[in-house]
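Following the same procedure, sequence and fold were stored together, as reproduced here.

>
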Amino acid sequence: MSQAIVTESATGSISKHAEGKKGTVLGSAVIVAGTAVGAGMFSLPVATSGLWFGYSILFMVLSWYCMYSAALYLLEANLRFPLGASFDTIAQGTIGNLGRVINGASVAFLCYILTYAYISGGSSIISYSLESVEGVSLSPPAASFVFALILSVIVMMGTRAVDRISTVLMGGMVITFLWSVSGLIGNASVDYLMVDLPFFDVVPYSMGALGFFTVSFGMQTAVPSITRYLDKDAAKVKKALLSGSLLALIFYTLWQYSFFGNLSRDAFPAIIAAGGNIGSMLEALAATGLHVSISTVLQWFANMAVASSFLGVSLCLFDYIADLFDFDNSFTGRLKTAAITFVPPTVLGMFLPDGFITAIGFAGLALVVFCIISPVVMAYVGRQRGEEGYQVSGGLFRMALVLLFGVAAIVFASLDLAGLLPSFG
């Protein structure tokens, strides 16, 4: 999707529009890939710079396998409920009200922290683009305010406005991504990519990167929607999840190749010291002598990716807040909803404009709860009850592996955010 995470309110629209229509595996695979891929990918080169290209791909494949497996466990739990059951319904029916509350709180926190992350990333791109193209200097707080104000007005206009604008952005993203990445790959240096690094020297850096990998493959919230879309056909849903997640894996591999092939490993400590924001990476790429046309197209892609992700995630948060506080759809009601939705992350973005990487790290913590741990527990509860139907292969060993991955991601991400893990540079 155009955002890193889609919550139930967003993916639910897929089900509503799909009523009466026969879903396809291809269409569902695109939904899965779109749900996983978003502006959070800009955090990957920075978060995995200590690992560098080869090891980052190795750990990315491991993360993909565990996240894909977690999606299958959610499918297993979902198939034991009536057609159209939501993530919330499945949680309540398997892990009880406490689990449901924890799940809901994780989703709300995730949406808030991602909204802030995209304000931070968007303001960074705006500041860099204006400075490099127009020679206009705009302070980070002012850029955060402008970015948040313009896009929050679009969200206030309603789902239809977001839908239309997001569709245009998605089309532009595909074109600019292919254009910029093809240029970056053509300009890539094998010497940059093939750095000889001892495995045990880079292992400490892999720990903090796990949370970023989980955000990159956060496709689980789309499972209830495509399960309904494909009429609870387990084989088709499984194919869609596999195809869509592999598409995301290929996408990220090209992305890592593009950045690590154009920036030396020694360039990243300075990027990290500057906050690791999107503008800093674009500036570092431009300084390598990258052709101005590729640099410009990459800026356009970054702008559209962040704007699209912001619209998707903040719309989910907007709907969540409206439902939570029972605000009506009048202008006054939507204004109240907008205030609770946008004021906290906007203020945070103005005072902490370079928190993109840190925010994505916190997002990984929340995502692990309801995208890895909850699905495994839901599937396990169903098996313990003796409920029949589709079961993910691999038995308890695979369940334990995925659960261990989730726990490790939470522990290491927490240690990394607390500054207790080695930091590259």
Observations:
- The chain has one domain: 8-417.
- Residues 8-417 form a domain with the Amino acid/polyamine transporter I fold (CATH 1.20.1740.10).
